[in-house]
Design brief:
The chain has a two-stranded antiparallel sheet. The chain is globular. The protein has one domain. It is mainly alpha-helical.
């Protein structure tokens, strides 16, 4: 039996991940929105001076948060329907660029380091609006609203004009930068990025064993994590495992 090459393993991982994403996209697309709704619900309840009561939204948020602490951001990388949509937009973009022999502009590493802070501003803004009783503004102006409606066959673009415009901007961003929304704008991504992760889950490498100027792991990382240190612990990591599979020396391990 022919031994699988690293490229073969990477392709198998990629297709298995796509299969998992499709399953969640079709059968459990609302996990993202339910977890997101929990954040809004908690902020709104506290703002009204009421006692926080358990509901399905909060349960979803707690479950996904526990999974993130135990397994890293595997939900973001493998199960989030909006994240999957972003991956597919980027792949289509890559195909079009290759066929037309063009290249879309790339976002520099320096710009990425600043842009990824935007999601914390988005998160704080949403919490403040909900706390002040303006949760309806969030729903009416969220790109996720349009995404959810389109997914069930409703096309109320005129009713949700701002949401539609924001969704178009997000799609353009997804076409230019892999995991654009997740890294720069996702409020849940902001929460999950600051959650602690169990030490044995974190990826590690022996940088002394790396090939000089290789950078295969960084170049293939969808969120462009900087891998200068031995520990690859980073709240931005979405546990896609591409760095581990692409390393020519098998130098990245848990």
């Amino acid at each position: 039996m022919k031994k699988l090459t690293k490229k073969d393993k990477l392709n198998l991982l990629r297709w298995f991940r796509v299969l998992v994403q499709i399953v969640f996209f079709v059968f459990l697309p609302a996990v993202f929105s339910q977890s997101f709704a929990a954040i809004k619900s908690i902020a709104e309840t506290v703002g009204n001076g009421e006692v926080i009561k358990n509901n399905s939204f909060i349960v979803s948020f707690i479950v996904v948060s526990i999974i993130t602490i135990l397994c890293g951001r595997i939900f973001c990388g493998w199960a989030c329907s909006f994240g999957a949509f972003g991956d597919w937009v980027f792949q289509v973009s890559q195909f079009i660029q290759k066929k037309l022999k063009i290249k879309f502009p790339k976002i520099s590493d320096k710009a990425i380091s600043y842009l990824k802070l935007l999601k914390y501003i988005v998160l704080i803004t949403i919490i403040v609006l909900c706390f002040c009783g303006k949760a309806s503004l969030v729903a009416e102006n969220s790109p996720w609203t349009v995404f959810s409606l389109v997914r069930v066959g409703q096309y109320k673009f005129a009713v949700y004009a701002t949401s539609t415009i924001l969704m178009c901007i997000v799609i353009v961003g997804m076409a230019i930068k892999e995991r654009f929304f997740c890294q720069f704008l996702c409020p849940l991504g902001a929460v999950f990025a600051i959650l602690p992760v169990l030490p044995f889950i974190s990826l590690k490498r022996n940088k002394d064993n790396c090939i000089p100027k290789c950078n295969a792991c960084k170049n293939n990382c969808p969120v462009k994590i900087k891998l200068q240190d031995n520990s690859l612990t980073d709240g931005e990591c979405i546990s896609c495992m591409r760095c581990r599979m692409i390393c020519p020396k098998g130098n990245i391990k848990n």
